[in-house]
Write a structure and sequence with these properties.
389 residues, alpha+beta, 4-stranded antiparallel beta sheet, 12 helices, 33% helix
Length: 389
């Protein structure tokens, strides 16, 4: 089983993570982890914080001479902004004047500020904000980069792209793997259609002027998975459910669909299900359409896995919505310090990482092995079994 946990506050000293369950003897590319961190920071519409941070991972354990040891891998990414928060975020007790404490007491609608404050019985909502911040996803991406390296070793690649932003275009874009793979890394919104991307940028500029924010839809595309990952036998082994949970856990995601999941509920079966064919040359069962998004009954079917994440607009608005001061109980505008206008491309990169971690776990479940070599033998044996099926 591949699993990970993260710790760290947005303006604390660092984000850390422990990733367990990678096989021993897997080559680790440190530069690729930093590349993924950079991809997550990229995107038109991000705010001032991204000018401060230049995320870089340090591996503290579990890797020796460029190879995994099979032991837990500890990772750390420093928060450069911490220098500006050493007093407010100090670990030791501090006596800070109220005007310097940066206490938050006007919760943002749509954010966990208020229910979190009620639940953890804290009257400084910063205690909630700091951990709820999407800054935490940096640590997920660092772990996800390692999961991607495992998947690549078995011929699986993962990409994401933005298919709708702030309702532009009217219907989400539908694109092939090659179109998605051709999107340059410096594309401002990781969108394959340049004309639509420009309209999205104009819309972001407009919302910036209005002090508002925008959501959107991204799609994660995974190709190269064998049929048979996940299982139909129990609710918690179904891979579609595990992927949905992983993507839904990304801040601001309110809906997740696999393939044409949203449209499927309103069309007849004859227009949705992907007919089965057999390719005599490759000796593979194939589908000419992929509305199932590569998963049937919670099991991969060998087609591309396609996951859509629907992101709501960020809840920190420069022109704040109405709220209530938790001390005075009077109507007050919600708190605002600094924020992004949109972060849909970044959320797509985080979703790639979450998908890589779930799919990596499914690969570890199916092929096991303490070393990469043992895992590979098991993988090849299964591939042989499929050829004979
Ligand atoms: C975030 C608010 C902003 C974002 C942050 C997520 O940070 P700050 O409050 O420091 O301006 O920039 O995202 C990141 C720091 C990041 O690395 O993605 C929030 O409230 O969720």
């Amino acid at each position: 089983m591949l699993s990970f946990t993260t710790a760290g506050e947005s303006h604390g000293r660092a984000l850390v993570a422990i990733l367990e369950g990678l096989p021993a003897g897997m080559p680790v590319d440190l530069g690729q982890i930093d590349e993924e961190l950079k991809r997550r920071q990229w995107g038109y519409g991000r705010g001032g914080r991204m000018k401060i941070e230049k995320d870089h991972v340090e591996i503290l354990s579990g890797v020796r001479h460029g190879l995994t040891l099979g032991s837990p891998i500890a990772l750390m990414i420093e928060n450069k902004d911490w220098q500006n928060w050493t007093e407010v975020m100090a670990v030791e007790p501090r006596d800070i004047a109220p005007e310097k404490s940066r206490r938050l007491k006007r919760p943002r609608p749509g954010h966990v500020d208020l229910p979190g404050g009620q639940k953890y019985d804290t009257r400084d909502l910063r205690n909630i904000l700091e951990r709820a911040s999407a800054r935490e996803t940096t640590a997920r991406v660092a772990c996800g980069a390692l999961a991607k390296q495992l998947l690549v070793a078995f011929g699986t690649e993962i990409r994401s792209h933005v298919i709708q932003l702030g309702g532009i275009p009217d219907l989400p874009l539908e694109l092939t793997w090659d179109q998605v793979a051709a999107i340059p890394e410096d594309a401002p919104l990781r969108c394959a259609d340049l004309e639509i991307q420009q309209r999205m940028i104009d819309s972001i500029d407009q919302r910036r002027e209005d002090g508002d924010t925008l959501g959107g839809v991204f799609e994660v595309v995974v190709r190269g998975l064998l049929p048979g990952l996940g299982s139909h036998t129990a609710w918690d082994l179904k891979l579609d459910g595990r992927l949905a949970q992983a993507v839904m856990s990304i801040p601001a995601i309110k809906a997740v669909a696999i393939g044409a999941g949203i449209e499927a509920s309103s069309l007849p079966g004859s227009e949705i299900h992907d007919e089965i064919a057999y390719n005599n040359e490759t000796k593979e069962f194939i589908r000419e359409t992929n509305r199932a998004g590569g998963l049937e009954g919670g099991v991969t079917n060998g087609e591309e896995v396609r996951i859509r994440g629907h992101m709501k607009p960020l809840s920190t608005l420069r022109r704040p919505l109405r709220s209530v001061d938790i001390d005075t109980k009077q109507d007050e505008p919600a708190g605002f310090e600094r924020s992004d206008i949109t972060a849909v491309p970044a959320a797509g990169v985080v979703a790639e990482s979450m998908a890589a971690l779930v799919l990596g776990a499914a690969m570890r479940d199916k092929f096991g092995g303490d070393s990469l070599g043992e895992m590979r033998r098991n993988f090849e044996g299964y591939r042989e079994q499929l050829r004979g099926y």
